[in-house]
Design brief:
48% of the residues lie in helices and 16% in strands. It has 426 residues and is α/β, with parallel strands linked by helices. Helix 8 links the parallel strand 5 and strand 6.
Length: 426
């Protein structure tokens, strides 16, 4: 059975995937770059590996892209503090690779090659890892099998598994049972995820619920963010701040009418809008949305501030810090394709509001369940929710406390994960 399933993967699924990438690269610049940058990948990787300290043990972290790598960062930093290690980081996507090339805690950063048997054998020989960590879901079967054959400890970290996943349909379930059995530890973000992995018929001793490193990462980043001074001292004195983060057009169509009504009823409220993509066209559209009703100012022109009620963020990379100034937040994406990170505002102990498309986030589901967040369906609900939050300070603070307690109670998975990894390479 194993031979048949892996033959289907190697001679059907993998060639189809590669051909699809080649075709897609004709229309997608990102895919084209990813293929182009992989030329001479293993030769270049070998040269990089020859430059690092050979006496240290090596831990290899693989992430699909930037989002998954953010979850790896607290683990990498903690391992570096605990032990002299070489850290190799690999990515599938160009965005992850390009945005992480200067990451200070990695000794080598590379793309991962296409998952052929020969590539898997060669990259293992080049890196010669003492342990390999796959973040969340980007698992390559031939690589996993070769690691197992070479008795190299491997881990899936921040692992999630939905109960209704298509990986549990008959043929797929048999394949994934074999695949997951190769790993020494599958460290999940929740008990439910652990149970769903066990349902594959895996050894229960290999599966542990340790929590989600996103809590540790967002907490670390919030401490740094608090030290930044995006706004002058006393800028928001006697004001109440609502931050709309990572918003799309679909979010704004619902939120903006409610916000305009709210601003007209309460002169102490300031609105900060951080669009998902702050292009010139998007910024101009946002300004036009409030034209003749409320004065707006772009963040980059803040030195010319003259009591504008709406601040439009025209830069990227500062959203987490913006939430620090907020009394409440709306998290975007939840009226379009899926909600963005709700932990970023929650870490500051503020109420969080979002739309109906939040099934992609376990954290959104949980903070809604415990009363730290509110799901809205339309403009009327948006106004009613924010009106209550901003007109009742005690209520707003009480909701924020629940939000803060939720994040604080989930801090700590990084240490558990590091202990698991180190137990295999001491």
């Amino acid at each position: 059975m194993k031979f048949i399933l892996f033959s289907l993967y190697n001679f059907v699924a993998l060639p189809f995937f590669f051909v699809s990438l080649k075709i897609l690269s004709l229309f997608n610049a990102k895919v084209k770059k990813g293929l182009r940058d992989r030329k001479n990948l293993l030769i270049n990787l070998e040269a990089k590996m020859n430059e690092i300290e050979n006496e240290n043990k090596t831990v290899w972290f693989h992430s699909a892209s930037m989002g998954e790598f953010e979850q790896a960062k607290p683990i990498i930093q903690k391992l570096k503090e605990e032990k002299n290690l070489n850290i190799v980081v690999s990515f599938f996507s160009p965005s992850g690779y390009e945005n992480s090339k200067r990451y200070p805690f990695a000794d080598v950063i590379t793309y991962i090659p296409l998952d052929t048997k020969s590539n898997a054998k060669r990259i293992i020989k080049i890196i010669n890892p003492d342990a390999v960590v796959f973040m969340r879901y980007d698992i390559w079967p031939n690589l996993a099998e070769e690691l197992h054959k070479n008795s190299i400890p491997s881990f899936i970290v921040d692992a999630t598994m939905r109960k209704d996943t298509i990986r549990k349909i008959p043929i797929a379930k048999s394949f994934h049972k074999i695949l997951y059995s190769y790993f020494d530890r599958i460290l999940t973000v929740s008990k439910e995820d652990a149970a769903n992995f066990i349902d594959f018929g895996l050894d229960e001793n290999k599966i542990k619920d340790v929590g989600d490193t996103r809590f540790d990462r967002v907490y670390q980043k919030s401490l740094v963010a608090k030290e930044k001074k995006l706004f002058p001292d006393c800028f928001f004195e006697n004001k109440k701040v609502l931050v709309i983060g990572s918003s799309w057009d679909a979010d704004e169509e619902v939120i903006f009418p409610a916000m305009k009504k709210l601003l007209s009823l309460d002169e102490s409220i300031i609105l900060i809008i951080a669009p998902h993509e702050p292009t010139i066209q998007r910024l101009e559209k946002l300004e036009n949305s409030f034209y003749n009703e409320f004065k707006t100012i772009r963040f980059s022109y803040l030195n010319n501030y003259s009591n504008e009620r709406v601040v439009i963020i025209d830069s990227i990379g500062i959203l987490l810090t913006l939430y620090y100034y907020a009394d409440a937040a709306y998290v975007g994406g939840s009226f379009k394709q899926g909600i963005h990170n709700v932990l970023e505002p929650a870490v500051y102990g503020i109420p969080v509001v979002f739309g109906p498309k939040n099934e992609n986030s376990q954290e959104a589901q949980m903070i809604k369940k415990i009363g730290a967040a509110f799901e809205i369906q339309n403009r009327k609900e948006a106004f009613r929710t924010f009106r209550k939050l901003f007109s009742n300070e005690d209520y707003r603070n009480k909701v924020g406390e629940i939000s803060s307690e939720y994040v604080n109670s989930n801090i700590g998975p990084t240490e558990k994960i590091c202990n698991e990894i180190l137990s295999f390479i001491q």
